[in-house]
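can u pls check wat happens w/ zinc ion
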Amino acid sequence: MFFIDKLDLKKEQEFLIVGLFEDEGLAFNGSELENSDWIGHIQDFISTGDISPQKKEVSIIHTFNKTGPKRLLFVGLGKKQDVTTELIREAFGKACKTLKAKQAATGAIYLDSFATENFDAKRLAHIFAEALALSTYTFNGYKTNKKEQSKLESITIYTDLAPESLKDDLNSGYVYGTATNSARTLVNTPANFLTATDLANYAIRLAEKYGFAVEILEKADCEKLGMGAFLAVNQGSDQPPKLIVLKYQGKQEWKDVIGLVGKGITFDTGGYSLKPRDGMVGMKTDMGGAAAVLGAMEIIGERKPKQNVLAVIPATDNMVSGKAFKPDDVITSLSGKTIEVLNTDAEGRLVLADAVTYAKQLGANYLIDVATLTGGVIVALGSDKTGAMTNNEDLYTKVFVASKQTDEMIWQLPITEKDKEKVRNSKIADLNNSPSREGHAIMGGAFIGEFAEDTPWVHLDIAGTSVVKANTDLCPAGATGVMVRTLATFVNEF
Ligand code: BES
Ligand code: ZN
Ligand code: ZN
């Protein structure tokens, strides 16, 4: 897929991608070509604005067989000192998407034309490979007329900077991108094709591929253990629940274990606190947290960091039937804490309560849960920021630093003592699952925090960020695979 070489303007390519800064000219002079004058004319196009160096502007010129590359694809980067990872990743994405749209089979990129003081060839290689995978993703779907797939077979990376060591960075970037795409596909898959059993089978295949230990707790196992909160949510379903556990041991001993817990509601009707008909559409994506954790595990399996990681995914749908749980029911969680159910649509926190407790029982020393938990987080932060809550600022800072590298924006919401009192406010049980609509996202976080207890824990509410309405430079409309890259980066750098 990837070849690494020194810049060679004689070699045939369908496209050569070149970065263009506003405050600099063309990054090569074409002196290796007989007709280097011709390359010089491109500079004129830049001055006339026919080739634009404005941020993310794409300009394509045909080279009329004067150079090996048939077309030069310029992507604008704005001013050099203003360049950010986000801009570079999106610029790469836009360029790669253009190659896909033009049905190119071969392409090349002159990586050095994107380099600045802060972005060396290694970092650029990772970001480029990641952007390539992310931006050319398509969900096949079920249309009888198949969507256009990318025809790209090979990309040559031209660089004079550090050719030998780039292979690993290209590999890591590509793995980060493709694992995110795997998560996207899980989330885009309709609930009739992705039940808890399907999700468990997916996890088993992942475990076989990467040698993870795997444990799938069946309904009877969960009953024996006393996972009353998880089971209550499954009560109305004809589909059996699955509590999925994957273990990756990257250290000699099973200590300093990072627990990744993902909400795996394969469809959320709301239960008897039924969602309105419009609010129910899209609830196949309520397993976005599970997908993020599985995507991160794919990266971990490929890259094998020296860390211990435990993935725990409570998987079930949330349905209505004569057997379903109801508002007013009181249930007993795995932790022993009792919960008054005020709203069956606040089911995510219930399944996560038992999953978090189980992760702790299996030895997790740090916990990160990822969940499409509340509509409230979208009201609070919009659909481009993941809401974060924590009981440990140091752990949160580590997650935040990781998110800065991946440009998956997270923003912290507080959990105060008064917030905790609200979830502890019940006349007949220890907790209630839905105190009020005020501070909605915080109530969800505070509830899960009751089960994390003293274990350092970060909660990531991805209800807003797990899908996008319209195509972006790096993602078609639909599932984003958000937090796959951040979780993997966090684990890698922990
Ligand atoms: N799965 C939903 C949250 C959600 C909403 C995800 C929109 C993606 C988009 C969750 O289970 C839910 O229904 N939350 C309720 C909580 C409330 C009943 C306390 C909500 O946000 O309204
Ligand atoms: Zn719900
Ligand atoms: Zn839900």
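The first helix runs from residue 36 to 48.
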